[in-house]
Write a structure and sequence with these properties.
3-stranded antiparallel β-sheet
Length: about 150
């Protein structure tokens, strides 16, 4: 084994161990903590059969949103991204404006006080209320400006 191969194998092992640790700790982590560790969260794969995963499995949608599996489902029938399947996936939001993503209205995963999103202009906004499903563009009274 060359020194380059050794280094690559070692880094791969460390990354795999960290990813496993994040999955194990995810139920007790906040959205902000998960987004801080997002490099260790696997990407959602529409080719996977999500009947084979336990509720609580965490992954990242194609849009970059961190989601947890609420209930296993037959992904050969329901083929969409998590944003299209809110009954199967719960969404995490971050209080870190640098991790803010474009707003998405989901009654099953509302923003709580302090959670951040981006408005249509790409400006970070912070929710001023719990259970917020209103867009910062149409209901700015529920959001405040933040500096990323």
């Amino acid at each position: 084994m060359t020194s380059r191969e050794f280094v690559l194998d070692t880094l791969k092992s460390l990354g795999t161990a960290k990813a496993k640790e994040v999955q194990e700790k995810a139920p007790d982590m906040t959205g902000t903590e998960l987004y801080a560790a997002e490099n260790y969260v696997p990407e959602f794969n529409p080719a996977r059969q999500y009947l084979n995963f336990s509720a609580g499995y965490v992954c990242r949608s194609a849009a970059g949103r961190l989601v947890k599996l609420i209930q296993p489902y037959d992904s050969t029938i329901y083929t969409g991204q998590p944003e299209e399947l809110p009954a199967q996936w719960g969404f995490y939001w971050s209080t870190d404006p640098e991790k803010a993503l474009p707003f998405v209205a989901l009654a099953t995963s509302p923003y709580m006080t302090g959670d951040c999103c981006l408005n249509a202009a790409g400006e970070p906004k912070r929710s001023k209320i719990d259970n917020n499903v209103w867009s910062p563009d149409t209901n700015p009274e529920y959001w405040e400006d933040v500096t990323a």
